[in-house]
Amino acid sequence: MQVKTQLDELQNYLIDASNLPGGHAEKLFIPETAQEIAEILKQAGESSIPVTISGARTGTVGGAIPFGGHVISLERFNAIKEINRENRYAVVGSGVLLTDLQKAVEAENLFYPPDPTEWSCQIGGTVATNASGARSFKYGATRRFVRRMEVVLPGGEIVNLKRGETFSENGFINFNSANAGAIKIKLPTYAQPDVRKNTSGYFSGDSVDAIDLFIGSEGTLGVITEVELDLLPKPEGFLSGIVFFKDEKDLLDFVDQARRLSFQTRAGSNQSQKTANQNSIDATLIEYFDGNSLRFIAEKFSQVPSDAKGAIFFEQETNAETEDVLFEQWNTLLEKHNADTEASWFTTTEQDLIRMREFRHALPVSVNERIVRYKQRKIGTDMAVPDEHFASFLRFYKDKLNESGLDYVIFGHIGDNHLHANILPKDESEARKAKHLYGRFIAQSVMLGGTISAEHGIGKLKSKYLNVMYGERYLNEMAELKRQFDPKGILSRDNMFEAKLLGV
Fold it and tell me: For the chain, where do the domains classified as CATH 3.30.465.10 start and end?
């Protein structure tokens, strides 16, 4: 195990993709085993020293930035231990990069669906934040694929959690600890918002699997060291399209019907329907780009029609038997909703699909280039709302942004009612206006029964907004849950909620 204390050695571990300033720490540990982490946490607990977990530091909410104490880097937990082709699962260290896992899985003709935008993230980080992405429209977030994990608790105990073994009853989970015996863990009593993506606070519900307490807990309950993940057979092929619309109402009507048809296809589960379902619309992803986004992308893709008010990027899995039928079904749906099919792009080849994904990723790159030019930070939303409120929420976004006069783009996972409004202030005055607008959007999403964070988590940047979503009572319930695992509040201090709620 390496231990570093010099500032130049610590510097890279004091920042993450949030650009939250002020990170500092006294010591960096780079362990290689769970037992070494257990010793670090045990000693830190005895001295009440806060410990921050550092993965690939790709998070956007400041969760990996330390403000004092020690840092544990998981970079040495980078072994892909097993890819089991027959039973379709993988066992990996928490420091394995998602891109490396994807390559190893694909080599075995298997498929791991979770696809957050930044593939240089570590698997442990994706579990700790319940990461999702575009494909979550069909496959859900990371939680759905975690079947087992090894976790080091703040007191230094190493535990193995296996899905399906321990469930809550009457609001409590009996958690067996070798050090402390049976612990009766009280769960938060809030209901999960009625959305398909949510990373706001600890998991709750009527019958909660113990493993789900740690998924999405943002490193506040334990340090994940090993994960066993479910895999799927690799799809034979994809039908993909980037489709332009001259009228936004047509675009939204198209999305609404494509989404409903996809849900209907998945609902048909009996054997007699299986063949029919393979020949029915069932999108893997449905992504949205507003008109402003298209103008940004046009800087790199001149083929974008100048009169487009928006675009949709969709994909569906196919095989040789279904490809033609599915193309006809999508084409009929697009014509029904007045898509500009002549200007749109379609493909079933891997080479062209890569080009389409480059289109999708050109927007964040262009946005970042613009914000660097302004020497400001973009203000980006991560909210999702229930189906029945999505159209009004998008209209609220656009009305308020247009009234503000600020530069902005809106894009993202429209299949899950989860769009990112990126506001691009040019100076400090506009930055203050953008932050005020962000607060308005938070309040509106909560009023509509949505979530303040659909995929990026809470970290340190959004803790005050979690209070807006849940209120003091439920924040105290979260704090009580953490206190049962971490009485001194040493682990990932100030992530999700401020340490003062723990009395430390």
Answer: 80-233
CA–CA distance, 430 with 438 (Å, rounded to integer): 12
Q: CA-CA distances (angstroms) from residue 228 to 114, 151, 208?
A: 14, 12, 19
Q: Which helix (H) or strand (E) holds 374?
A: helix 350-374
Q: Given this structure, which CATH class describes domain 237-447?
A: alpha beta
Comparing CA positions, the residue from 137, 239, 282, 148 lying closest to residue 196 is 137
Collect all residues with Cβ–Cβ distance below 8 Å to 272 and sequence separation of at least 6: none
Residue 30 β-bridge partners: 2
Stretch among 64-73, 117-126, 264-273, 422-431 having the lowest mean pLDDT? 264-273
**pLDDT at position 333 over 90:** yes
Residues of the chain with CATH 3.40.462.40: 237-447
- For 177-191, the pLDDT digits (tens) are 666 567 789 999 999
Residues 6 or more apart whose Cβ sits within 8 Å of residue 21: none
CATH T-level fold of 80-233: 3.30.465
CA distance 430 to 20: 19
pTM: 0.93
Q: Residue 279: name the closest of 219, 320, 241 by CA.
A: 320
- Determine how many CB atoms are found less than 10 A away from the CB of residue 82: 10
Give per-residue pLDDT as tens, 48-71.
999 999 999 999 899 999 999 999
Q: Is 275 left (phi over 0), alpha (psi -120 to 50) or beta?
A: alpha
Pairwise CA distance, residues 441 & 56, whole Å: 29
Identity of residue 262: S
In the block, residue with structure tokens 């085993």: 33
Place of tokens 């599915």: 326
